[in-house]
Specification:
434 residues, 14 helices, 13 strands, globular
Length: 434
């Protein structure tokens, strides 16, 4: 989506005031801003699905994140419009996700044509292993991202099978200097195990990568690998102490001004710390995951913050990731430890209920009463038991469409919409084999 026109700096001001629609028009992981902008002297911000940011050091350009495969040409054009001749000297990957690691391609081609050295790419030492993991799981990543981003209509969507690996890696900290600027690279686990945040002290510019995305952090994500909630919060507090005046978010609009940056970072850290501490306190009692999911709450004083809205990830997903990290995969329910096949369970429950018709009737009643969550449970049993039933798919599509529409989290909304679209096509899951 392309938001309403306005300079990035102006929109950032309005975003901080809570005046912009972050669910749709200015969603931090969906909005694309057609024009890059020099938000402070020598710092060009390009906002697509993720930000890609270019600093003029006085002796070449350095990029902090480099965009997705579909950003390659547009990013190159915007940078060359801004600085026509300065070579790209270096780039820093904040982590391995594909919306951050593809934009050096045209600059490398240019360097080869002009006989210049290609840009040096910096990243954390764990990043190459994550590229290797992607190459081992191409089909899986294609399927889960179709669901997460609502891409079921793109039959030709594929997951990238070639990556630009870094030239220089580090473990904890690394500093390099180019021209007038120093780039201090720091590692703190968060959304990924290879997360890097960058501090440029001469300009008081902070690039947190996806450790700050102008939304509830992507610290849960039901289809992706482990996140590190407590480590994430610790990294945010380190950044808050630096005195940054410009923070270029990994996704979404930048934050300008020292007090605002400190507030945004510490509030985000507090949210993560609260979710983790509440979850661990309940786990200490030996309770099941079901109780944890429904007892943990966001701190009330943080719920209205414009940069902490649950428009991408969902707080319950974060709780699940804390449980997974500290408690493993078992949810504490003994019958889930060595379960019967789900279809066998579903058919037994449907038979006990008096058949599919009775289950669908009750699901429809629950919908009318506003309990879409429970209605979806019932219809899912029905579709597992009778996957070829047109009546089951018709009601399932209606229920999941309605349940999706109530979600502020785009991740939850897209996965539920995917289920609805699957049933409209007579399948349980478009991305799978059933």
């Amino acid at each position: 989506m392309v938001p309403a026109m306005g300079t990035i700096a102006d929109l950032a001001e309005r975003m901080w005031a809570g005046e912009l629609d972050v669910v749709h028009e200015h969603h931090p992981v969906a909005a694309r801003y057609p024009e890059a902008e020099e938000i402070v002297d020598g710092v060009l911000v390009y906002l697509s699905t993720a930000s890609a940011n270019t600093l003029d050091t006085g002796d070449g350009l350095v990029m902090l994140d480099t965009g997705a495969p579909y950003d390659v040409d547009a990013l190159y054009g915007q940078v060359r419009r801004w600085r026509p001749d300065e070579p790209l000297a270096a780039a820093v990957y904040s982590h391995h996700h594909i919306d951050h690691v593809f934009g050096t391609a045209r600059f490398e081609q240019e360097a080869a044509e002009r006989g210049r050295p290609r840009p040096v790419v910096y990243a954390h030492a764990d990043l190459p292993g994550n590229f290797d993991r992607y190459l081992r799981t191409l089909g899986w990543n294609r399927r889960i991202n179709q669901r997460q981003f609502g891409l079921y209509g793109l039959a030709n969507f594929t997951w990238p099978d070639r990556y630009r690996y870094p030239d220089v890696t580090f473990d904890d900290r690394l500093t390099f200097r180019r021209g007038e600027l120093t780039f201090e690279l720091h590692h703190d686990r968060g959304e990924t195990d290879d997360a890097t945040w960058t501090w440029v002290p001469e300009r008081k510019v902070l690039h947190p990568g996806d450790l700050f995305i102008y939304a509830v952090p992507n610290a849960g994500n039901p289809q992706k690998v482990q996140r590190y909630v407590g480590d994430w919060a610790a990294g945010l507090r380190k950044m808050a102490a630096l005195g940054a005046e410009v923070m270029i978010s990994g996704h979404g609009l930048p934050v300008l001004g020292g007090e605002r940056i400190r507030t945004a970072l510490t509030d985000t850290a507090e949210l993560l710390e609260s979710l983790e501490s509440q979850t661990l306190a309940l786990m200490e009692t030996g309770c099941t995951l079901d109780r944890v999911l429904h007892d943990v709450e966001l701190p009330a004083h943080l719920r209205g913050k414009p940069y902490l809205q649950p428009v991408y990830d969902h707080p319950q997903f974060i709780v699940r990731n804390v449980w997974r990290r500290f408690g493993g995969w078992h949810d504490g329910e003994p019958d889930h430890l060595l379960p019967s096949p789900r279809q066998e369970q579903a058919r037994e429950w449907i038979a006990l209920a008096g058949g599919t018709g009775a289950v669908l009737a009750r699901a429809a009643e629950l919908r009318e009463g506003g309990n879409l969550r429970l209605a979806c449970h019932l219809v899912e049993h029905a579709v597992v038991a009778e996957p070829a039933s047109a009546d089951v798919h018709a009601l399932r599509a209606e229920l999941y469409t309605a349940w999706a529409a109530e979600q502020s989290s785009s991740m939850a909304r897209n996965i539920l919409d995917h289920a609805a679209e699957s049933s409209r096509q007579g399948k349980r899951d478009l991305a799978g084999d059933f």
